[in-house]
Automatic annotation (TrEMBL):
Keyword Transferase: no
Domain of life: Eukaryota
GO cellular component term, pick one: membrane
Originating organism: Aspergillus kawachii (White koji mold)
Keyword Ligase: no
InterPro entries xrefs: MFS, MFS_trans_sf
Keywords assigned: Membrane, Transmembrane, Transmembrane helix, Transport
Membrane topology according to the record: Multi-pass membrane protein
Protein name: Pantothenate transporter
Length: 434
């Protein structure tokens, strides 16, 4: 979901009439609209679309097409289709992770693939700075940036198409007995990992009525009010600290560094200390809230303090793998899990659409209204996570009183449950991971 910011720095695109702040917000909105429209078709077709993840190849090609934009309209069209291409990637990785790993293993595995995003933020700053320093008459530096990053993405996609399976049964790097073991070891998750049935409308409807769905959706929307602003305007905000336009790209590296540190810390705790996933998400969200307050309230001449605040403000993004692990661990039934993932991604997109609209041209580069929206969103996000935690604890205790403490299931019972496509609300022995 969260991605390396690849917009050209302000003032670096004379061919595009020096994009104004409002146009930057429109471009951010356009990506979100493309994601929303694509994700509407995702749940039913997800398994087919993600079988080879060739959407990543398309995404890389669209990224390269940005270099052909001659005006704002062309760039807007490219950004829209970029959102379309991205829509299935994070939900697809989440579903695949849930098929291969046990519930207790998922936070670390979800975080492992998301770590690449954090590292790309660090490396991306250096790459953007280096490419921005290249002087050539053939293409502009910002065009070269899109061409290089798009080509790398397209190249990597070929390895994923060949090597990354959509289920343990299709894993070419496993022998037939190993595939059976991989399928069997995840049956204890009770989330229907062996279910390969068709789309079920009753499960989709149940997802819409489940309180956990809406707590996660509201949390995701709220925090992405902040994400939309940071992703779209971080270089402008840093430029407002007194750094040059090209150096502002380099100074985005601390954002990725902070994410790496907090991702390893909180994912490690969530993996090895029971019942801490949501607590770690709350911790990350409050850390970002403090960071954004520092950016907003510190004196203008305190560049180090405000840059530190901006780096901390990006920490909430590492909650993405933890929230995805909650879905893969706590939502049973393939259709229900796919629907919940789709709703979460819609909330992510809508938050990224709405967030940048609070960043007004007249308030550049400090954006007080945008900062108010970002801090309010983070505060609301922490509140909805608390609500989710309380709901899970209450529901687990209610089920213990009603059905008794869950007993160890036999292998045949686990297999039957894995093939049954029952949801978490229908399985009496199901207890939510917190």
């Amino acid at each position: 979901m969260e991605k390396q910011h690849t917009d050209p720095p302000p003032g670096a695109t004379p061919e595009l009439d020096d994009l104004k702040v409002k146009e930057e917000a429109t471009l951010a909105r356009d990506v979100g609209l493309g994601q929303v429209l694509e994700v509407e078709a995702t749940p039913e077709q997800e398994r087919k679309v993600l079988r080879k993840l060739d959407i990543i190849l398309i995404w890389g090609g669209i990224l390269m097409c940005h270099a052909a934009a001659k005006n704002f309209g062309g760039l807007m069209a490219a950004r829209f289709f970029l959102g379309v291409g991205e829509a299935a990637i994070a939900p697809g990785f989440s579903l695949i992770t849930g098929m291969f790993y046990k519930r207790e293993e998922q936070p670390a595995r979800q975080s492992a693939w998301f770590l690449g995003n954090c590292i790309s933020t660090i490396i991306g700053g250096v790459v953007a700075y280096g490419i921005g320093s290249i002087k050539t008459n053939a293409v502009s530096s910002w065009q070269l940036l899109f061409l290089i990053l798009g080509a790398i993405t397209a190249f990597i996609s070929f390895f994923l198409i060949v090597l990354l399976p959509d289920s343990p049964k299709k894993a070419i790097f496993l022998t037939k007995p190993e595939r059976a073991i991989a399928m069997h070891r995840t049956l204890a998750n009770k989330t229907g990992v062996a279910d390969e049935g068709s789309f079920r409308w009753d499960q989709a409807w149940q997802a819409l009525r489940d309180p956990q769905t809406w707590f996660l959706v509201l949390y995701t929307f709220s925090v992405n009010l902040c994400n939309g602003g940071i992703t779209s305007f971080s270089s402008i905000i840093i430029n407002g600290f007194g750094f040059s336009q090209i150096r502002s790209l380099l100074m985005q590296m601390p954002l990725g560094g902070a994410q790496v540190v907090f991702l390893i810390l909180t994912a490690g705790i969530a993996t090895f200390v029971p019942h801490t996933r949501i607590l770690m998400m709350i911790f990350n969200t409050l850390t970002s809230l403090i960071g954004m307050i520092l950016v907003w309230k510190l004196d203008e001449d305190n560049r180090r303090g405000r840059l530190t605040g901006l780096a901390l403000g990006a920490v909430f993004a590492v909650n993405i793998p933890l929230s995805l692990s909650i879905i893969s661990s706590n939502v049973a039934g393939f259709t229900k899990r796919s629907t919940t993932s789709a709703l979460l991604f819609v909330a992510y997109c809508v938050g990224n659409i709405v967030g940048p609209q609070f960043f007004y041209t007249s308030e550049e580069p400090h954006y007080p209204t945008g900062m108010k929206a970002a801090t309010s969103g983070l505060a609301l996000g922490a509140f909805f996570l608390m609500c989710l935690l309380v709901y899970y604890i209450w529901e687990n205790k209610r089920r213990d009183r009603l059905y008794g403490v869950p007993e160890q299931m036999t292998e045949s019972q686990e297999l039957a449950l894995g093939l049954s496509s029952k949801t978490d609300l229908e399985i009496e022995d199901f207890r939510y991971v917190v």
